[in-house]
Every structure is written in C-alpha cells, then in structure tokens.
Amino acid sequence: MTTIEKNLLTVRERIAAACIAAGREPGAVELLAVSKTFDAQAVTQACAAGQRAFGENYIQEAVQKIAELRQLPLVWHCIGPIQSNKTRLVAEHFDWVHTVERFKTAQRLSEQRPAQLAPLQVCIQVNVDGGASKSGVAPEEALALAQQVAALPNLRLRGVMSIPEPTPDFAAACTVFAKVKAVFDNLNANGLALDTLSMGMSADLEAAIQSGSTMVRVGTAIFGGRPKAAL
Ligand SMILES: *Cc1c(COP(=O)(O)O)cnc(C)c1O
Predict the structure, then answer these.
(1) Fewer CB near the last or first residue (10 Å), C or N of the chain?
(2) Residue 83: phi, psi to the nearest 5?
C-alpha cells in the first residue's frame, strides 16, 4: 500500500468518526484532496485509491496537471485566489471554484466558460475572522453577492467557503466555523438552495464537521508536508 493510500484511509476514518460524533450520516461530508505543490504522480496514486475530487491553488501549476491527467475521471476544484488575468484559464479547465469574492470575477468566469462544458460550480468565499486584507466577503455582504452570482448563466452557485485562521482548540474552531454556517443558513433562508459548505482542513476537519461542513479540503494529511513558501 502506498503512503498516500494509507493516509487517505486514515483521513476517511477521521471524517466518518467526526460525522458519527456530530450525529450526521457518515457519507454527509465529501473529501477534497488538496494536491497543490504535489505532482501528477501523487494525484494518480490518490486516484488509484479511489479519490476523485482534487483542489488546487496555483492556476498555472493546476492547468498543467489537469492536462497531464485528462484520461483520469477527476473533478478539479480551484481553491486559490483568482487574479483577473487568470479567469479564462480557470473557466476553461476547472469544474469548481471555491474562491469567488467579487462579482466582477464571477462575471468574467461566466462569460469565459466554454459553451460545451457544464456550468462552473461555484462557492462564495466568506471572511469571518480576518482583517480587511484577507480574502473573502464580509458575512453581511455575502447575500447580495450570492444573489448576483446565482443569476449568471454559466455558473451554478453551490455554496459557501471559508478559510478561518488556525485556532488554539476545538471549541474555538467551532465558534468560528459556526459563523460560516450562519452565513450558509442565511443564504438558504433567502431561497438560494445551496448544498455545499466548504470548510475544514487537515488540522481542524473534526470541528468543521461538527459545525456543519459538507466538504473538507485536506492536503497535508494526505500528501504530506509542503515547502513553507507554498503555504
Ligand atoms: C492548502 C489549502 C488547504 C489544505 O490545507 P492542509 O492544512 O494541508 O490540509 C485547504 N484549503 C485551502 C484553501 C488551501 O489553500
């Protein structure tokens, strides 16, 4: 068994245990394997172990990997910041984008989505704990942005995503994740029919699942450590 296969088993067990602890169905949470900085061979190994959904932060790196692995039945999620000169690559190569925080970006993604592809699945990124410089819209701006994005023809709004700062313990993490869940619930209360709450990473997936996450984004616990410069 490869290390990646072993790690995937462990992560799936953590997810299942967290679902049970939270009184949720064991299948209620999808695992997104974050393969940024790791090569196509690592992704191939994870695929052989049954993993299909992969997350990437760096557009150029991702586009190469996606091309190299186009024979595999993979679903690619963009989870990094998107500069406006990169929207076309994202619209042409990814299946999902988690990091929509401006209407202008969403509009470009919709315009540039090739007609022969399914709509691009998107999440609104929300900033529940950071300063003004951090990515994501403020919670009170999420509804207005979500309503605008939902009206774009070639996007399909699926949910809300957040990357809270690391917290000292489980309870503190739950408090922050609850703010993201509140945004998600509020959008649904306003008729948006969202099914995806993207939150939780290697270190805090249990707290995220306790707080209602439906998709955890896990890198280190599957692929190992990354060079510091790459987050
Ligand atoms: C890198 C990254 C992850 C994965 O983080 P790990 O701590 O390695 O699990 C998840 N989400 C985003 C947005 C990331 O950039």
Answers:
(1) N
(2) -75, 155
